[in-house]
Amino acid sequence: MSAGTAIPAERAAVFDCRVAFAETLIALAEEDERIVAVCNDSVGSSNLGGFREAFPERLINVGIAEQNMVGVAAGLANAGFVPFVSAASPFLTGRAMEQIKADIVYSGANVKLCGQSPGVSYGELGPTHHSIEDIAWMRALDDLPIVVPADPEQTREALHWAADYVGPVFLRIGRHKVRSVSGGQAPAFVPSRCNTLAAGTDVTLIANGTMVEVALDAARQLGAEGVSVRVLNMATVQPLDAEAVLDAARSTGGIVTIEEAVPRGGMGGAIAELLAERHPTRMRMLGTHQFAPTGDVAYLFDRFSLTCNGVAAAARELLSDS
């Protein structure tokens, strides 16, 4: 494993990717006066307070009106601005799906859609606030780039890339704090390219977002048992790093995908679709397979086996079938 993954989990510092998002957006806006932020009464949860202080005239708060929010962003893009739309992912993608489809993606508007606090981040607020379907919904839209950063380094670099990219982008920014997993890799983010965090020949773990650190922990556990584990950080879900996936299918004994989302149509689904056509292999897909009950994040991760022990067990089960 890389130097960045050698720190024991219990002693590693943790970071909030939303803070990295907010700081980077301010830095980008200082360099480019076209950049504006659009939100849905979510200045606090999107960490946009600093942006509002620095650029009060460039923050548009539409209130709790997500469809209008996306429409306003499309209009701003048509006027030459570069809008970053920031809202809780369940409401951005669920309530404004038609506007995202027609006003942004179909129209090719230069809008950056930033889904905050996705997955089961809102824990006890239940399925109405969980955003487990967002990747599947966004993947259904015509070649919309989808990026799920795993740590602050990837978040910053993905934001810089999105600002320079001409066209719509969906960025999924995690809520709960994570360890740095990029391990000093430079660059930490390259669009449509995954980062190999550990080399291995027995089994491959492919994860993104908050689940990358979980995959690394599982790889350590399996490594102590003599299992050679490859770990891929698949930050870009669409377009997928097809060659890395195919190489894993050819050179390891199977693939386990781990995501804080519904695998049907999500990252797991994307990988399964690719392999079904080009190189079938054994797979296990871990994720939130159904509406989650009310409970805190740790409880929900355990329920869906999105833990070190759960991932390791899935890998052992896959290998036992060989």
Overview of the structural elements:
This protein has 322 residues and is of the alpha/beta class. The chain has two domains: 3-11 and 181-320, Rossmann fold (3-Layer(aba) Sandwich); 14-179, Rossmann fold, CATH 3.40.50. The chain contains twelve helices and 14 strands. The protein has helices spanning 17-31, 49-54, 66-78, 89-95, 97-105, 134-139, 152-164, 211-224, 242-251, 267-278, 297-303, 308-320; strands at 14-15, 35-39, 59-61, 82-88, 112-116, 146-147, 169-173, 178-179, 195-198, 203-207, 229-233, 236-238, 255-258, 283-286. The protein has a seven-stranded mixed beta sheet, sandwiched between helices. Strands 9-11-10-13-14 form a five-stranded mixed beta sheet, sandwiched between helices. Strands 1-8 form a two-stranded antiparallel sheet. Helix 3 packs parallel to helix 5 (97-105) and helix 9 (242-251) packs across helix 10. The chain is globular. The chain starts with 13 loop residues before the first strand and ends with a helix. Residues 1-10 have low confidence and may be disordered.
